[in-house]
Design a protein that fits this description.
114 residues; single chain; 5-stranded mixed sheet; alpha/beta; Ribosomal Protein S5, domain 2
Amino acid sequence: MLRLKQRWEFLRVASAGHKWVSPGMIVQAWRHEEDEAGEVFRIGYTVSKKVGGAIERNRAKRRLRAVAEKIILLHAKPGYDFILIGRKSTLKRAFPALMQDLETALRKLDAYNK
């Protein structure tokens, strides 16, 4: 899985305006141009200080990465950039519920590959 790390990459995905809000996370998606990344997808993670201190933010990012490994690797259409944004409930939400949140988000964003 390739990672989004630069601020301009995050801003490009956010400016696309395609997002889905669920209780456990917010998912933003942007479809690549045909000549850009081809058949890969990239993913970025962000958690604000509203979630908590550094320990809580890192825990939320670890949970998001674990969910992404299970769902995005299997079910995401290639050619997309995704940003997973952690929320306060990301820390307390059951792991199967987080997986369902991400799967639902992919379906709603038309990025689900059966």
